Every structure is written in structure tokens, then in C-alpha cells.
């Protein structure tokens, strides 16, 4: 058996998440955070996706390309356990793994082949913008679905812990972009109410102002008594 394996990305994904800090921990937690996969040469051929439109969901195998190589530990602290309890790395979906490979199930909305490009329009995703896609496989309900599966410490979907409110200035800024981003306020709310802070900070009130990059915007917010105040939504150069 070979000690190494060389993989070539078949595609790249475009998402509104410009940094790791803002990415939801699972794709279905933020419904407005959709993505588009763009196949790379030489895989960007219509023949490569023939028949894919017959499937409603896909498995994406991707690279954690923003994680430092070689830095992993046999145990990790999952956010669902408050960042205080350790489990084995193979009993988690931690990003710091022996091999920086991730798996995500996404909804397929449209297959588009146009002007030499092959694009897969997706539903909600949990990947950073520009993440390399290593493989794409159709989701098979009869084989992949296990309604009675036991999911350990993550048996149920987490309840969003935070209430999100916009200052008048932030709400006004969002409305200015409503033509191009009609669901921007709802999207920002979905992202921040999941509390993207590290698990050890969650549940704590602080005067610190946080910033997160979504689409072409820098969103600044703070925590006050279990509620989020979105203070600014600023357009930035892209």
C-alpha cells in the first residue's frame, strides 16, 4: 500500500462565507446560505454531469484547505459538548483531522451547462467560498438514509441560542442592498443566531465587537444579555 495519495480537485464551490468563522456547522442550519459548484478543467464537460439532474441531493467530498497541514490530535472538543469534553477525532466531524477531507450532503437545485462552464446550483451549504471539491456523488435515499440511526452526542438539531436584532443604521444599510440581496437580513440573522463564536465563549456576554464577512459585506455585531445587536453592515470591495 502506498504511503501517499495525490488528489486533483474536480471543482470549486462559490458560497457567501468568506471566512471559516461564519460557516454553519451543518448545511441545513442556514437555509439562505446557498452555493454554486463550478467544475474545473478537464472535468467541466456536460457529459460529466449527464443524468445528475435526476437526483435531488448530492454528497460533496472536499478539502479543508484552510486548516494547517499536519496539525491534528487524537481527541477533539466538539462544539455540541460546549468545547469542554473530549472525544476521539474519528467520533467527531472536527476539521483538524489526519487527512483534511470533509463530507457534506447538499440539495441540488439546477444543473447548468453554458458558455463552456458546468455549474451546479445548490441549496444550503457549509463550506467556505473557494473550497476545493474532490468528488461529487449522488445521494441515494434507499442506501444513505437511516431514519433510526443513533447519533451520539448530536442526536438532534441544535436550537439557535441567540435572538438577533438590527440597529436602525444596520437595518437601513441592509435595505439599500435589497434589490441584489433580497434576503440579506434573514441570512445574516440565520448565521449569527447560531452563535459562530468558539464553544467556550458561547452563553457569555461581552462588550467585544465581532466581525464576519458574508457575501461582499462586513457585518459587525455584539452580544448583550443573550441577544445579538447587529451594529453595522458595510459593503466592502470585492
UniProtKB/TrEMBL annotation:
GO molecular function, one term: RNA binding
Keyword tRNA processing tagged: yes
Ranges of residues in domain TsaA-like: 7-148
InterPro entries, alphabetized: TrmO-like_N, TrmO_C, UPF0066_cons_site, YaeB-like, YaeB-like_sf, YaeB_N_sf
A GO BP entry: methylation
Family matches, as NCBIfam families: tRNA_TsaA (TIGR00104)
Subunit record text: Homodimer.
UniProt entry tagged with the keyword Transferase: yes
Catalytic activity field: N(6)-L-threonylcarbamoyladenosine(37) in tRNA + S-adenosyl-L-methionine = N(6)-methyl,N(6)-L-threonylcarbamoyladenosine(37) in tRNA + S-adenosyl-L-homocysteine + H(+)
Family: Belongs to the tRNA methyltransferase O family.
The organism's place on the tree of life at top rank: Bacteria
Organism (species): Aggregatibacter actinomycetemcomitans (Actinobacillus actinomycetemcomitans)
Protein name: tRNA (adenine(37)-N6)-methyltransferase
Classification lineage: Bacteria, Pseudomonadati, Pseudomonadota, Gammaproteobacteria, Pasteurellales
Keywords: Methyltransferase, RNA-binding, S-adenosyl-L-methionine, Transferase, tRNA processing
Amino acid at each position: 500500500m502506498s504511503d501517499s495519495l495525490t488528489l486533483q480537485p474536480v471543482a470549486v464551490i462559490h458560497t457567501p462565507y468568506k471566512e471559516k468563522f461564519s460557516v454553519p456547522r451543518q448545511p441545513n442550519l442556514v437555509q439562505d446560505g446557498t452555493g454554486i459548484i463550478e467544475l474545473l478543467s478537464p472535468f467541466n464537460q456536460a457529459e460529466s454531469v449527464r443524468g445528475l439532474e435526476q437526483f435531488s441531493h448530492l454528497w460533496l467530498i472536499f478539502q479543508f484547505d484552510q486548516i494547517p497541514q499536519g496539525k491534528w490530535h487524537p481527541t477533539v472538543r466538539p462544539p455540541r459538548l460546549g468545547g469542554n469534553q473530549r472525544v476521539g477525532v474519528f467520533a467527531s466531524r472536527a476539521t483538524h483531522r489526519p487527512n483534511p477531507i470533509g463530507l457534506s450532503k447538499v440539495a441540488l437545485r439546477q444543473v447548468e451547462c453554458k458558455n463552456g462552464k458546468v455549474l451546479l446550483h445548490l441549496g444550503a451549504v457549509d463550506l467556505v467560498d473557494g473550497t476545493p471539491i474532490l468528488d461529487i456523488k449522488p445521494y441515494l435515499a434507499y442506501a444513505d438514509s437511516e431514519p433510526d440511526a443513533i447519533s451520539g452526542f448530536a442526536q438532534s438539531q441544535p436550537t439557535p441560542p441567540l435572538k438577533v436584532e438590527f440597529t436602525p443604521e444596520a437595518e437601513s444599510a441592509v435595505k439599500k442592498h435589497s434589490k441584489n440581496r433580497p434576503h440579506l437580513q434573514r441570512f445574516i440573522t440565520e448565521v449569527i443566531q447560531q452563535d459562530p463564536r468558539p464553544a467556550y465563549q458561547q452563553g457569555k456576554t461581552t462588550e467585544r465587537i465581532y466581525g464576519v464577512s458574508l457575501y461582499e459585506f462586513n457585518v459587525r455585531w455584539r452580544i448583550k444579555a443573550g441577544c445579538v445587536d447587529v451594529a453595522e453592515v458595510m459593503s466592502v470591495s470585492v
